[in-house]
Amino acid sequence: MKFLHEYRDAAAVEKLVREIERTVTRPHTLMEVCGGQTHSIVKFGIDRLLPAEITLIHGPGCPVCVTPIDLIDKAIEIAARREVLFCSFGDMLRVPGSHTDLFAAKAAGADVRMVYSPLDAVRLAQAHPRREVVFFAVGFETTAPVNALAVFQAHTQGLKNFSILCAQVLVPPAMEAILASPHCRVQGFLAAGHVCTVMGYHEYEALCQRHQTPIVVTGFEPLDILEGVLLCVRQLEERRAAVENQYVRAVRREGNLAAQALVQTVFQPGARSWRGLGEIPKSGLVLRPPYDAYDAEKRFGLEGHAVAEPEACRSGDVLQGFIKPVECPAFGVLCTPERPLGAPMVSSEGACAAYYRYRREPAGAAASPRL
């Protein structure tokens, strides 16, 4: 187990922890909405340094994790076609569908290629005009601009053999769905800083006021997370709700206007199914005309297809913050990185992967360290 004594600025960490301890007077439950934040929290034991009154729970902050099984199945079905050259980021290759994954499809002969940008897929489409090149467009608002750019370039260049299998999702509607749940435990959010570098945080303001829930835009370093916790706890202690920006070095209220304009040119909001959460209205991005000609689901006739989650996998409960990964009976037994039941065990930002790597014991099994 690695704790914050290994972090480069332990003195600043200790100062923030002490300030949080002086501020908190009653229990508060906060949710971080970013898989990168989850990994920092678990890796460095940030949650174990906080006062007992503060509970951190993990939200649906990993776009790979919330990609539904039916879309993975569609990706595998498309990739298996002889005319297709299927492109994806590496973290999608081991994500399980209902029977197999893209890595196994590649081993069976499918032309599946790992790329580092959707623009790589556009270049492959240029280089292979007789192949259908499909890019698996997965992500939150952070990846939407470059995915939009890939489609825009393909359209501008008149490429007829390029398309995307779109799994773009939007964070605010998912936060709304969590707050609207009758089982919601969340009293404050640590919002994903990288999402807000693109979209800004003005769209959180109505959500914050509607549910009277503090939202603090937060970075990913231990110091960022602890400062975000402090800002959120201060609001809760003062019984107020506002959107605050901890990540001032990277985020502005209005966000990146040029990136937003490109996204709005190519995409429009639409309903999207989330693994574990079900369908959420206007929580995804879909291609708008004339760019919908680059929709791989339409091109290959795969619209409409639902697959049930494995009964043994409780990733939906993990993604909604109802349980911690170690509270799932399958964790580390039926579900491991080598044989995952759900995406959170294999994604680089998945909560289950973080717990498997850094903290495998059941909740409450070890005493909380203090600085």
Structure description:
It is a single chain. By secondary structure, the chain is an alpha/beta fold. The protein has a domain at 66-170 and 255-299: HypD, alpha/beta domain 2 (Rossmann fold, 3-Layer(aba) Sandwich), CATH 3.40.50. Helix content is 38%, strand content 17%. It has helices at 10-23, 35-44, 46-49, 63-66, 69-79, 102-107, 118-127, 144-157, 171-180, 193-199, 204-211, 222-237, 257-266, 296-299, 315-319, 351-358, and strands spanning 28-32, 54-58, 84-88, 112-114, 132-139, 162-168, 188-192, 215-218, 243-245, 267-274, 278-287. The chain has a five-stranded parallel sheet with strand order 2-1-7-8-9. Strands 4-3-5-6 form a four-stranded parallel sheet, with helices on both faces. The longest helix has 16 residues, at 222-237. The protein is globular and about 65 Å long. It starts with 9 loop residues before the first helix and ends in a 13-residue tail after the last helix. The model is unreliable at 363-371 (pLDDT under 50).
What is the C-level CATH assignment of the domain at 66-170 and 255-299?
Answer: Alpha Beta
Helix content: 25-40%
Going by helix content, strand content and strand pairing, the class is alpha/beta
Helix/strand order: HEHHEHHEHEHEHEHEHHEHEHEEHHH
Q: In what order do the strands lie side by side in the largest sheet?
A: 2-1-7-8-9
Ranges where pLDDT stays below 50 over 5 or more residues in a row are: 363-371
CATH superfamily of the domain at 66-170 and 255-299: HypD, alpha/beta domain 2
